[in-house]
């Protein structure tokens, strides 16, 4: 009994020496900041309470000027700024409760950034207010301005101008390839989930990372894709099987007699989610190098015309009746599973390339 009592007393004394932060972890809320297309800043209105910390992440490049200001009716509300690779528990680049090189005034950051990468802004209540469980509404204004240098200085590990040779797309509904690094730029095509592309280097715009990529088809399509949806690839995922011998652009491909198609046949298809597999008639018009259209007709149903670019299904030609139908393409073993509205089609690569 004496030993048990001593053990319980010792455990109690040890518990008293453990910091409260180790007994119950303070809540953290995380949000990614993205500017609207064509803009260089944003305004965030939110709230923080008690021991909570709100973390905002945004991408920027060395040499750009970042400005941040925070206003709140609760004067115990502050923010810290952390360089890429640092965060809570690390030394901050600047703290909103002090003035210094980057802080011309309390809760106002203004400085040229030293490193390229993802910066973190933490908003919190000062200790005494946090202990009392106070709450605060605040407004956070953020802007990033200045031309990007031709060569990124202080490049970061997961890749501005560095990074892997190849990316793999991780976006269930496909990833838009755009003409410029902006959500407002023209869409060149949609990259299907799982496809691999060549990495031509990444930059930041609108507070997010954008990567210039090229499809692996010959010739490839180049454009900008949001880096949030790219993971390291291997470069071994071919966009066509090597034995297919595709028709090259400008070469003639004979038509099936009595049709306007270069080839006809059947592919596996599904009328809707959970439906039994059927065989659907198709006809393909090949423009060379995996580009063209594939028309697939459901038994007794509508015809869907699927547009291919560089070996990848990128969109469909919508009639007035199905203009709002969703389009999706996912890589399968030797082709793509293409969905238009509720219907799905399994289209081998050989259909568009020939073989």
Would you mind describing this structure in some detail?
Pfam families: SH3_3. The strands form 5 sheets. An 8-stranded antiparallel beta sheet has the order 21-20-19-18-17-24-23-22. The protein has a 5-stranded mixed beta sheet with strand order 1-3-8-5-6. The relative contact order is 0.11. It has 3 domains: 20-145, Jelly Rolls, CATH 2.60.120.380; 166-232, SH3 Domains (SH3 type barrels, Roll); 244-353, no CATH class. The chain is mainly β and 355 residues long. It has 4 helices and 24 strands.
- Major beta-sheet overview: 8 strands, antiparallel
**CATH class categorisation of the largest domain:** Mainly Beta
| Number of beta-strand segments | 24
Which word captures the global form? elongated
In total, how many domains does the architecture comprise? 3
- Portion in helices: under 10%
Rounded radius of gyration (Å): 28 Å
Largest sheet strand order: 21-20-19-18-17-24-23-22
Pfam families: SH3_3 (PF08239)
Signal peptide: 1-24
Domain SH3b: 174-230
InterPro entries: SH3-like_bac-type
Give a brief rundown of this model.
The protein has 355 residues and is mainly beta.
Give the SSE map.
Elements: H1 2-17, H2 20-23, E1 28-32, E2 41-49, E3 53-60, E4 65-72, E5 77-82, E6 94-95, E7 108-112, E8 117-125, H3 127-131, E9 135-145, E10 166-169, E11 175-178, E12 187-191, E13 196-205, E14 208-215, E15 222-226, E16 230-232, E17 263-270, E18 278-288, E19 291-297, E20 303-309, E21 312-317, E22 327-332, E23 335-340, E24 343-348, H4 349-353
